[in-house]
Amino acid sequence: MDITQVLILLAVAAVIGLLGQIIAGGKIGGFFASIIVGFGGAYLGMWLAAKFHLPRILPLTVGEKVYPLVWSVGGAVILVAIIRIITGKKR
Using CA atoms, how far apart are residues 78 and 37, in angstroms rounded to an integer? Predict the structure, then answer.
């Protein structure tokens, strides 16, 4: 994986994390927190989609890996909701 692909993944993870925070209604942090939520949400969403044998919706191929964007955003929403429950933050 070259530097361009890494930068693309970081940008996509930031957007996914931001969308997850907007949909779940909680602001966890800044840019780097959005990237972490994006990556965590992507892996959680892909794991859940594989568990339930769901199709890839809006797949993004970077290098040799395929990231289903819809399940990634869904995973980010779940992750933000879990973090909000654990920390007890209100809207």
Answer: 10
